Amino acid sequence: MSVLSKRPVLRWLVPATAAVAVIGGGAAVATVAGAADPTLPDRSAAQLLVDLQTARLDGLSGTVVQRADLGLPPIVSLAGMLGDDSLASLVDGQHTLRVWYAGPDKARISLLGGDAQTDVIRNGSDTWLWSSRSKTATHGKINGDGDHGAPPAGLPASPQEAADLALKAIDPSTQVSVGRSTKIAGRDAYELNLTPKDHESLVGQVSIAIDATEHVPLRFRIYPAASDKAAFEVAFTMINFDRPDDAQFVFNPPAGTKVTEFDEALKAAAGDKDDKALEDKIAKERQQPSKGEGPTIIGEGWTTVFMAKLDKTGGDEPGIAGLLGQLPKVSGAWGSGRLFTSHLATGLLTDDGRVFFGAVSPERLYEVAASHR
């Protein structure tokens, strides 16, 4: 069951990396209400889930603070590979963002940092990624229900995005309970806690603070196993539930801005702007998005491991090769390769082109790699 599928708030910005961070599934809902602030009526976990399911959100604006301490390896090439240094910086440290939302096709996120600003905007079928520091803007088009032509983004920029990822599936792999009530951005909120039953997961708990009146997430935290310090948090510090004016989503590139169409950026990244085959491929994907083979899912719940095979038909990308070269070498009965580790997830890329990723220990990935060749 998709808890928030009927309210895809800023869904177009949700990245795959964050989906893996809260991997696993859903929950066996606890029926006993937790400790609540005297000003709030007791609500069970099941009632709070229903609140999230039935909430209506016409619009909001506010200020969000994001904090990340994911324990990522010091890969200096990461920012450049993600396309925008400002967006890439969201994977570490503390950042302030302004958000506006007026429906699934009208959303804007502004990342503020010193004298620089990076905006990701969706207005109908138009999407923009703008950087004041580099004086560049990338424009794309979203066709139908797809996200083709949308610019890249970083980790979830609102508690709603993060909560949508964590609550996509409800099944017995998770214990859901109600924590202490709290105040977020001056508003009363319930706390809903999701705790994996499988102790082999690197994720210890996911905590979601839910507005007591509007029933939307105000704060989202992920705790690593055996730690009381959140590895990732995104929370409103100010919020207004009035629908923003449509003018907020209209973007006109400032004078001196270099504008690139998203298709052109793809071709430039491929190293050949005149590659007719690449142009045909892009046109074909626009007409009918390529489904391809999805990753192989191994296991279930919070210890799910995703396995995929790299497509080497396009040759080696220098940027990717440089990035992987900075990861530590590992080997075992499964073969040899490179290992990516963090507080919440682990990745393994074998020399024969297999990729394994999950919220599990390296040892678990080695076991899976040995049995899935």
Automatic annotation (TrEMBL):
Keywords: Lipoprotein, Signal. Residues 139-158 are annotated as: Disordered. The keyword Signal applies. Residues 1-35 form the signal peptide. It comes from the Bacteria. SUPFAM superfamilies: Prokaryotic lipoproteins and lipoprotein localization factors. InterPro entries: LolA/LolB/LppX, Sporulation_related. The keyword Nucleus does not apply. This is Outer membrane lipoprotein-sorting protein. The lineage of its organism: Bacteria, Bacillati, Actinomycetota, Actinomycetes, Micromonosporales.
